[in-house]
Amino acid sequence: MMRGRFGQRKEWLAGAFLLTLTLINVASVCKLAPMLRKGYQDFTAFYGAAKMVRDGQIARLYDLDALYQVEKQFAPEVPIRQAALPYNHTPFEVLVWLPFAYLNYLPAYVAWTVFNIVLLILSLRMVRSRFPEVGEFSLIFLLLAVGAFVPVVIALMQGQDPILLVFAFTLGLTLLEEGRDVAAGAALGLGLFKFHFVIPLALILSVRRPRVLLGIIPVGAMWILVSALMVGWGGLVEFVQFSWRLEKSGAGGAISSVGMPNLRGLIAELPGIVGGSVFAVSLTMVCSVVVMGVAAWVVARSEVPVSCLFAVASVASILVSYHAIIHDVAWLVVVVLLLFCAPGGGTRSEMRIDVILLMVVYAIFLSSSRWPWVAPLWSVPVVIWILRKYRHDYAAEAAV
C-alpha cells in the first residue's frame, strides 16, 4: 500500500529535523577527533584486553595494573587511570576484539568503526525487508534516523559494543516476525554480553512466544562454557566480583547512577535519595519487578503485532537494567523507527504527533550530555507512542 500525502510530508518534516541533528553529531565527532586519535575512547580498554589475550595474558584479564600497562604502550598520552575504563565485560566478548588486536591501535579503531557501520546498514536492511511500513520510507531517511540518534553516535565514537546488540536484536526481531521463535531466541543469545538487557527482554517475549527460551538458553550455556574455558571457573567468579566492585565504586568516579537511562537513574534523581544507598537499591528492585509484571501483563492479554511486542519488551528491559549508559540503548533506534513508520490514522493530527514524539525522544538523548537528569525521561514519549499506535489492538482484543 502506497503512503498518502500525510505520510510523505511526515517523512520530509522528520527528515529535516534528523538532518540537522546528524550534522550536529558529525560536528561533535570532528571536534573530538584529536582526542580519539590519542586513545581517550573506551575502545582503548577493549583493544588492551584483546592484546593481553593475544599475548597469552588471559589469566590477568581483570588485573587493572596489567591492563593499564598494556594500554600505556599504545596510548602513552592518555592518563589511563583517569580517562579510560577497565575491561569489565564478559570474558567471551573479548574474542570479538581479538582480530583487531593484530592491527596497530588507530587502524584497529577505524576498522572496528567500519565494521559497526556495516552492522548498522545490515540491521536497517533487515528491518526494511521484513516490515513493509518501514520499507516505504527512503533509505536516506533511515540513515539519517541512525546518524541523528545520539546513543548510536556515542557507541561508534567510543568504539563500544552496543551496535553488536543492535544487530543481534534486529536479527531476533525479524526472525520473530517470520515465526521462527527458536532461531530468534538464539539470535538474542548473541547479545548475552549485555545479559542485563537480553534476559529481561527474552523473558517478556517468552510470555507470548515461549519457544524463544529454547533458543536463548543453549546459547547462554555455550557462552558460559566458552568463558570458563578461557579464564576458568575461578575467573568467572573473579569477573562477577570485579564488576560488582566497579559498580559500587562507580568505576573510580567515571560512572554515576544519575543520568542512567533506566529506573536506577530515575530514582537516583528523586529528592532525598542517595544513589547506591540501601533504600535506593531496594526501591529500584521493587520498581523493576512492577515494570516487568506490567510488561508481561500487557503482552499476555493482547495478540499484538511483533513490532509492539518488541517495543514493550525493549522499554521494560532498558528500564529494569541495573547498569546502563546512554550508548547502551542504541538498539532503541529500531523501536523508534518501528513506531514512527507504523501506520496510524492517516490524518494530519496523527502525522504531527508522530513527528513531535520522534523529536522529543531524539532531543532527550541529545540534551542528556548537558543535563544528565533528563536521560531516563526517554521512556515517557516512547510509552505514549506505543499506547497510541497499538491502542486499537488492545481495544479489539479486550472486546473479544
Description:
- The chain has 400 residues and is mainly alpha-helical.
- Helices cover 72% and strands 0% of the residues.
Let me know the average pLDDT.
88
Total number of strands:
0
Shape: globular
Low-confidence stretches: 393-400
Overall structural domain count: 1
Number of separate helices: 19
Largest sheet features: none
What portion of residues is helical? over 70%
Tell me what portion of residues adopts beta-strand conformation.
under 5%
Order of helices and strands: HHHHHHHHHHHHHHHHHHH
Q: Helix/strand-derived class?
A: mainly alpha
Q: Using only CA atoms, what is the Rg?
A: 21 Å
- Distance separating the two termini: 28 Å
Set down the secondary structure blueprint.
Elements: H1 5-38, H2 43-54, H3 64-74, H4 80-83, H5 94-97, H6 105-130, H7 132-135, H8 139-147, H9 150-158, H10 162-177, H11 181-189, H12 195-208, H13 212-253, H14 263-268, H15 278-301, H16 306-320, H17 332-341, H18 348-367, H19 379-399
Helix pairs in contact: 1-8, 1-18, 2-3, 6-10, 10-11, 11-13, 12-15, 12-16, 15-16, 16-17, 16-19, 18-19
Key descriptive features of the protein:
400 residues, mainly alpha, 72% helix, 0% strand, globular
Brief description of this entry?
The protein is mostly helical and 400 residues long. The protein has helices spanning 5-38, 43-54, 64-74, 80-83, 94-97, 105-130, 132-135, 139-147, 150-158, 162-177, 181-189, 195-208, 212-253, 263-268, 278-301, 306-320, 332-341, 348-367, 379-399.
